[in-house]
Design brief:
heterodimer, A: 143 residues, alpha+beta, Heat Shock Protein 90, 3 helices, globular, B: 103 residues, alpha/beta, Transcription Regulator spoIIAA, 5-stranded mixed sheet, 5 strands
């Protein structure tokens, strides 16, 4: 448990859905985790998981709309040492049953992002984000 | 991402060392491929120096896998050198530390 991460805290930020936003997503996460005083190793893992989830929105939910001007929202909340990261987007609806990583022993490029997210986080769930959002992914991790 | 390429002729063939710098993610992955793949396809032994790469996501890992596999097809190898601790952690999470040539 990270003793320092006691204070309840919520921040959210909107990003354009494009690959050049991924660096901004990471910067936002690092700044929030700095405030939460999350230790470096865990911070690196959480930033990777969040960046992979944001990448999945760009790569898959907006696969057919690379020039979209839509935004995606990343919301980070920490309450009672439970970290929750929520993603909202208006891309192609995701079928949670089809979200799976490749077999890890089948070495080939691709299919690792979802594996990393599942390795790092305690729970990965798709929920109803309400209008106007189409997809609402929630990642949780007990600190 | 920025890069620098050096080449030297050794007894066993031409070695190309590519120094990558910065964060390697989906946004720069095509550029990374453009830098690395031609040297592999030219039959050179490629050394990827990652000492200045502090962040790599699954897209970057895919480039390492693809580079490794392309080199094998050419009966050659890609050696990944001076991996930073943070990138090594991602390589190990992907269970690739025994597959890729790490030095």
């Amino acid at each position: 448990m990270n003793e320092a991460a006691q204070a309840n805290h919520t921040e959210k930020k909107a990003f354009l859905v494009k690959s050049s936003s991924l660096k901004e997503v990471r910067t936002f996460c690092r700044e929030v985790f700095e405030k939460l005083q999350i230790e470096q190793n865990l911070k690196d893992e959480l930033v990777l998981a969040i960046a992979e989830a944001a990448q999945n929105i760009v790569k898959h939910a907006y696969k057919d709309a690379p020039d979209s001007k839509d935004i995606m929202v990343v919301k980070i909340s920490c309450e009672d040492n439970k970290l929750q990261i929520a993603f909202y987007d208006m891309g192609t609806p995701v079928d949670p049953k089809k979200v799976k990583h490749r077999e890890i022993d089948n070495i080939k490029p691709g299919g690792l992002g979802t594996f990393f997210i599942q390795e790092i986080m305690d729970a990965v769930e798709f929920k109803d984000g309400g209008k106007p959002w189409i997809n609402h992914l929630v990642l949780t991790k007990q600190l | 991402m920025t890069y620098k390429v050096t080449e030297e002729a050794l007894a066993h063939g031409n070695v190309c060392t590519i120094f990558l710098d910065g964060e390697i993610d989906m946004d720069v992955v095509e550029k990374a491929k453009e830098v690395i793949f031609p040297h592999i396809e030219a039959g050179k032994e490629v050394h990827l120096n990652l000492s200045q790469v502090q962040y790599m996501d699954s897209s970057g890992i895919s480039v390492l896998i693809e580079s490794h596999q392309k080199a094998l097809e050419k009966n050659n190898k890609v050696i990944i050198k001076d991996v930073s601790k943070s990138v090594l952690k991602v390589i190990m999470m992907a269970k690739l530390e025994q597959i890729l040539n790490l030095e």
